[in-house]
Design a protein that fits this description.
Elements lengths: L6 H28 L1 H6 L14 H19 L8 H22 L13 H10 L6 H12 L1 H17 L9 H9 L13 H8 L5 H30 L15 H13 L5 H25 L5 H10 L8 H22 L8 E5 L2 H4 L5 E4 L9 E5 L11 H8 L4 H9 L6 H5 L5 H18 L5 H26 L4 H11 L4 H13 L5 H21 L5 H10 L5 H19 L1
Helix pairs in contact: 1-3, 1-4, 3-4, 6-10, 7-10, 8-10, 12-20, 14-16, 16-19, 16-20, 19-20, 19-23, 20-21, 21-22, 23-25
């Protein structure tokens, strides 16, 4: 016999849900106001003339607003909420508490300039800019004009951080300078900042006066700002850099690293537990790799790795060739998607080569999701340096970054209009969920039949190993006193990746502590839930239905994903009974 809710209880539940919905809207309104580029990407042009708000006073204001929103959230009776409302309450509370914790721990004063500094934030904003009208062109000109102020804000925070004892590791200085310096090369019409006008012209939209204004700004303000930033780093800040590489070498560093590990993984695993699990995972994958070596006629794993590093069959001859090979692969994958997914996004994606001037500074392949306003497709960026992306890595990289990985996943999440905007679009707060899905998608290559070739299978294991060693190296650097050389040696021992890529990876872990832990921890959860669902459901298990359940969770932390999938398992078992 079902138990009906009393009328008063139903009304209370409705009121609590309405309160939460309004507060979630208030939070998103606040977020858009503080992040104009995000707002513009959503088609909200109220702040279209602004670029970033990243001064110290901006962070102080945001912390005060977060405190007030938390106070309002405490006034909602969470016990009356159910379903996705319960998830939304917990996630909004987590987000606001994390925002306040970041401010309290001075994240904005800690120089996290690699792999993403101010030049990277600007590049991302420009890549997402499409000009359809003259007013949009004028507003873009105003945003370009504000770039020097953005660099000045970063400088202010950098120097204020010195007073609190926070310093950039010296080993990263050359990379930080090179990243900004790379934008100073070439003609104005070939520059990053001119790109929106070049794209508009190719579509027959010409804004002569605004183009002229931006060309002048690039020459007289923007490029001098980039040069001033690099000159400041080389000539003044260099003497202030720290020789150590661990976050624990800074004031409050151990607490900060433990906070970052929890924040990025959305788990309660300690740094020590993560390190130990990483060691175990490296051993497991190494055994699988040795098995592949035997199947390919090599006496040992090192023999197979040397073959993979040197045999020409695994390397494209040019950036055009690598792009063509991966483009063909994406279509092979796309054909299989409906077999494994019942729900698909409306948005599509394209493939582009990473500019050669940037290729050495970024991963071999990565995803740029479509902007929420739907003005352009997502982009699967592929390196223009073929040695950095051998053929045996093409399948797992593509599954991870394109479809059914990030570009498909994020497009699906953005289209879940019943969820509040802060969840659909604030995906940076769900790194383990997003990156864990990407890792899980690499494993789908087995289900798709793409790893029957032993070299392709090795490529899948290589990618899995790449993320496993991160657990060991990131915690090793920041909690166990590992040197940069020790971290590089460990990765070279376990990976076929070229030395340049490995060194860039290690420097990424130094410059962005804790973030690299999210991938494998998230991957563990997706694989664990698939195994659990198969074990508990038996003949009633459907991989296609499980994938749809993963997707319709919306952006969540790993514990909430677990609850969401377990509820589906229990409901399916009840239906079968």
């Amino acid at each position: 016999m079902s138990v009906k809710s009393a009328p008063g209880e139903t009304q209370q539940t409705h009121n609590a849900s309405e309160q939460l919905s309004r507060l979630a809207d208030d939070y998103w309104e606040f977020y858009l106001r503080e992040h104009p580029v995000v707002a513009l990407g959503h088609g909200d042009e109220r702040f279209r003339h602004e670029l970033f708000k990243e001064s110290i006073s901006d962070f102080e204001r945001r912390d005060g607003e977060s405190a007030m929103l938390l106070q309002s959230l405490a006034g909602i009776e969470a016990d009356l909420l159910g379903g996705q409302d319960q998830f939304t309450f917990q996630l909004l509370e987590r987000e606001l508490l994390n925002d306040r914790k970041h401010f309290a721990m001075h994240t904005h004063l800690r120089p996290m300039l690699f792999p993403l500094g101010p030049e990277g934030w600007v590049a991302d904003a420009v890549h997402k800019t499409t000009l359809f009208t003259r007013q949009q062109a004028r507003d873009y000109s105003r945003r370009v004009e504000s770039i020097p102020a953005f660099f000045a804000d970063h400088s202010e925070r950098l120097w204020s951080g010195l007073d609190a004892g926070f310093r950039l590791p010296r080993v990263l200085l050359d990379r930080v300078c090179a990243a900004a310096q790379s934008y100073l090369e070439g003609l104005v019409e070939q520059s990053l900042w001119y790109r929106p006008f070049a794209q508009a012209r190719s579509a027959g939209r010409i804004f002569e006066a605004e183009e002229s204004a931006v060309r002048s700004l690039i020459q007289t303000k923007v490029r001098p700002a980039y040069k001033g930033w690099t000159d400041m780093l080389k000539k003044r800040y260099a003497s202030e850099c720290r020789e150590t590489i661990a976050t624990t070498g800074e004031p409050g560093g151990e607490d900060y690293y433990r906070f970052l590990a929890r924040y990025y993984t959305s788990s309660d695993l300690s740094a020590e537990e993560i390190h130990a699990r990483g060691v175990d995972e490296v051993a497991r994958i190494s055994a699988d790799m040795k098995s592949i070596a035997g199947k390919t006629g090599h006496e040992d794993l090192e023999g197979l790795r040397n073959f993979l590093r040197t045999d020409a069959q695994f390397y494209s001859g040019s950036k055009e060739e690598i792009l063509e090979r991966i483009a063909i692969l994406t279509k092979r994958i796309d054909r299989r998607i409906p077999e494994f997914f019942g729900n698909l996004p409306r948005m599509t994606y394209g493939i582009e080569s990473v500019p050669e001037s940037l290729a050495a500074q970024v991963p071999p392949a990565y995803a740029q999701p479509n902007p929420p306003n739907g003005t352009s497709a997502g982009i699967f960026w592929v390196t223009s340096l073929p040695r950095r992306c051998p053929g045996y890595l093409h399948v797992p990289l593509t599954l991870h970054e394109a479809w059914p990985g990030h570009l498909m996943h994020i497009a699906m999440l953005q289209e879940m209009t019943a969820l509040p905007a802060f969840r659909r679009y604030g995906l940076a707060n769900y790194t383990a969920f997003i990156e864990g899905w990407g890792l899980y998608c690499e494993q789908l290559g087995h289900d798709f039949g793409f790893y029957s070739d032993p070299f392709a299978h090795y490529g899948c294991l290589e990618m899995e190993m790449w993320r496993a060693v991160r657990l060991v190296v990131d915690t090793g650097i920041h909690m166990q006193g590992w040197s940069r050389e020790q971290a590089i040696a460990y990765m070279r021992l376990h990976l076929t990746l070229d030395p340049v890529t490995i060194e860039a990876e290690v420097d990424r872990y130094i410059g962005m502590p804790g973030q690299a832990l999210a991938y494998k921890v998230g991957g563990f959860k997706f694989s664990e839930l698939r195994e659990r669902a198969h074990r508990q459901l038996g003949d009633a298990f459907s991989l296609r239905r499980l994938h749809d359940r993963f997707m319709d969770a919306g952006p969540v932390t790993l514990d909430l994903l677990d609850q969401h999938v377990q509820a589906w398992i229990d409901a399916t078992r009840s239906e079968k009974a």
